[in-house]
Amino acid sequence: MKKITLLLATLVLSATHSYAQLKVTKIRNKDQDHYIATVIGYPIIGLYTYVNQPEPITILNADGTGIMQNEDLVKENIIWGIECSESGVPIFKEGFNSASYSFWYRITGSAKSKTDDGNNWILQSFSIHYDRKKMFISGERVKEYVEEDKKS
């Protein structure tokens, strides 16, 4: 009996943990609501750089925070997400061996961000190129990825 109880508790905890990983955030930009999430089924978390250049960089963390470094090499803290439906399904446009998403971010922690109303979200393109195993932010910053084995 204890084994069944332990098994049920483990299943409930793992289901709760899996569900809790998908966090959808409602944002407002120019009087229009959008929903963003940091999980889209691909390993988008990590370091993005220009090809053959160490800087500027973009770092995306799993918790929706990160760093965006602009061309003059100033690093700014950001919160970010990929546009999705209210239920968390990523919104994308399928291409030939690629998919395009809407990448939203907002600068935090700077003097400029402290004076805004929280609606200053910046929209950039985010694309995944399956055949090249690369992801791009705004077509410039790139990250290579390895597809995880999907076990049946």
Search tags:
single chain; alpha+beta; eleven-stranded antiparallel beta sheet; disordered N terminus
Write a concise synopsis of the structure shown.
The chain is built from two helices and eleven strands; from the N terminus they run αββββββββαβββ. By secondary structure, it is α+β, with helices and mostly antiparallel strands. A hairpin with a 2-residue loop joins strand 1 (25-29) and strand 2 (32-37).
Write the layout of secondary structure elements.
Layout: H1 2-20, E1 25-29, E2 32-37, E3 46-49, E4 57-60, E5 65-69, E6 75-84, E7 92-95, E8 98-108, H2 111-115, E9 122-129, E10 134-137, E11 141-144
Antiparallel strand pairs: 1-2, 2-6, 3-4, 4-5, 5-6, 6-8, 7-8, 8-9, 9-10, 10-11
Descriptive notes:
Mean pLDDT is 84; it is low at 1-20. 16% of the residues lie in helices and 43% in strands. The protein has helices at residues 2-20, 111-115; strands spanning 25-29, 32-37, 46-49, 57-60, 65-69, 75-84, 92-95, 98-108, 122-129, 134-137, 141-144. Strand 9 (122-129) and strand 10 (134-137) form a beta hairpin. Strands 1, 2, 3, 4, 5, 6, 7, 8, 9, 10 and 11 form an 11-stranded antiparallel sheet that branches. With 152 residues, it is α+β, with helices and mostly antiparallel strands. The two termini are 30 Å apart.
Structural class based on helices, strands and sheet pairing: alpha+beta
Per DSSP, what share of the residues sits in E-state strands of 2 or more residues? Answer: 35-45%
Radius of gyration: 18 Å
What is the H/E string? HEEEEEEEEHEEE
| Secondary structure: number of strands | 11
Give the oligomeric state: single chain
Mean of residue pLDDT values? 84
Cα end-to-end separation:
30 Å
Low-confidence stretches: 1-20
